[in-house]
Please model this.
Amino acid sequence: MKAWWPVGHVIGYEHTFVHEFHEFIRAIAQDRAASPDFIDGVRRRQALDAVDKSIADGRWITVSDVWDFSLQGLAVAPLCGRTCRPRAFCGLGQIRRADHLELPDANVGLEWEPCHQMVKLIDPMPRLRTWARRIFHVHGKDATIKWDVIRQYGVNGPKPWAFHRTPGFGDSDWTAIISALRQENWSGAIDIEGRHDPVYRDVLEMTGQVHALNHLKACRGGVYIPNPTM
Model:
């Protein structure tokens, strides 16, 4: 990094990723956890919230007056399976330590979705079952894998073989996904992400979004019906 921009120079969005890779590779070489990590990010968010409250109240306050980190339901980890950036590795490491009680705070969890695992030819279900109790939020994003293209050309061939999809148009079994989550007493929202679908976008965007909503409702068992009482 000796040839990098000197202190005081403004850097842009893309430089952040260079710094991430630099820190991550150094952490591997030195056999230590990368820093800053997600916990550091939460602490800085806490300090910024304290600044806002101090300005609004017109008084000095301590950071602990804002919110107690241990009481917050925070999803401060990355999309599970998106291992193309170092912060994802660091986040999964944090979760792994938390799961083995080396990180005592139980409010560190995962935002999970199948898409980014599938486009790397990873089966998302084993990870889902492994981390179900640590999942705080589910991202409604699917993928289609064209296995015939892979078989014909391979993964480095001339034709694309993976596509991000809106739920209901991809390969994921959302009934199995929701069932696996419910087996671990998960409850929460599935937020649908659009725009990336190669078919249901632009003028068909809302058509795809509504279809995805209805599809996910059906996969969860349809409309909730309470049990009869005697």
